[in-house]
Amino acid sequence: MRLPESPPDVSNILPRGGPVRFLELLKNANPLPNGRYLHWDELRRRPAPAGMTHEEWWLTVSIPRSSLRQTLPLLDKTGQPFVFALPAPLLIDLHHIDRDAAGRIRSSSATPPTEDSQRYLIGSLIEEAITSSQLEGAATTRKVAAAMLRSGRKPHDQHEQMIFNNFRAMEHLRSMRDVRLTPEHVLELHRILTEDTLDDPLDAGRLRLSDEVQVIDTRDNTVLHDPPSHTELAERLQRLCDFANADEDSEPFVHPVLRAILLHFMIGYDHPFADGNGRTARALFYWSMARSGYWLMEYTSISHILRKAPARYMKAYLYTETDSNDTTYFLLHQLKTMRKAIAALHEYVERKSQEQKDTERLLAASSSLRGRFNHRQVALLTHALRNTGEAYRVDAHQRSHNVVYQTARNDLLDLEGLGLLEKTKQGNAFLFFAPANLRERLLNLSRTTP
């Protein structure tokens, strides 16, 4: 990966044209060239305004930005503070997230029933567990991983173990939403995330003991970041927990969404663990969002979006490090990621709602079948109509809908008794399969049921 070029030193640009030229340039001062919060590495590749060099253009951008920046109680490895600004694009993104992430799940028709919300939540936890692990090298396919999590079977290899741990951690976070974060909480979260996946098992749940850790682009082995010394990690983690727990009266005021993103950023920057830092960072982001009442983020997967463009994710860190510790670059990147994740959730809900309506319409066409199936059975039939030959287990159905085992078992046996599923034995458990002619069987059942 090509490293971004650091901005020129503004103090070296100032004397070149004297005070008259400087005042002339200030007339065109604008922190948002082309309406965007551009880094120098992006700006220098664009045509400069007429009569300006690229360095002078940067001067007209960086000076007004410096007046927007606020200092954070978070430090880089040299002891200099990180800063952030609130440019218009960032405020617009925050407005959308305030509106969409603390409200209800939207659908163009009606809000999904409460029982469906549980199914959407389980699905999103599975998606985040898989893609967050895949971002850090897990090679298991999504289908195999999802089947493992839904069935509850034990992981077969280290890749599956990473995904299994991630799912456990996401569930663990739901029990932490009302606690004040401590270093012990972070260490426990890391232990859950990395158990049985590290070269040295003792590294799970403890801060790294050496400085033999670098952030590297594995595609070409470019060194992207050298984290702070391991001797500073305990103090830095306590400082981060204090920041995570700060209330609205703290100075400066940091919007709760920005606070959650900055937790993510700092774990990535400090790299306090031998491995599993990215997973820990993203998990703490979810904890902070839930603690601040942005409950809908539980239903989204930011890792699914990040995995589509990992280079942009890395650049957001690098832009901050190379431009005066300005975290605005990372904040803007993550806000865009969140908005995409929320939009993906609404599209998913819309699609699933429509699929379920189509199935319900098929069932409602027959007066004999109308009201015959509960919402869990309708959801399973909807899935089965699109996935011929799919296998269903009682324990997987139980987890998907958060019901007791007997309820899940009765659901499947009822469908099998009607000829809509076929049953076979696998070890000590039953497997239920969707027949290839399920639609025809439903139609025949509607004609024959009294």
UniProtKB/TrEMBL annotation:
The keyword Zinc does not apply. ATP binds at D275, G276, N277, G278, R279, T280, A281, R282. The active site is at H271. The keyword Secreted does not apply. Residues 181-333 form the Fido domain. Keywords: ATP-binding, Nucleotide-binding. InterPro entries: Fido (IPR003812), Fido-like_dom_sf (IPR036597), Fido_containing (IPR040198). SUPFAM superfamilies: Fic-like. GO terms for molecular function: ATP binding. This is Fic family protein. It comes from Pseudomonas pohangensis.
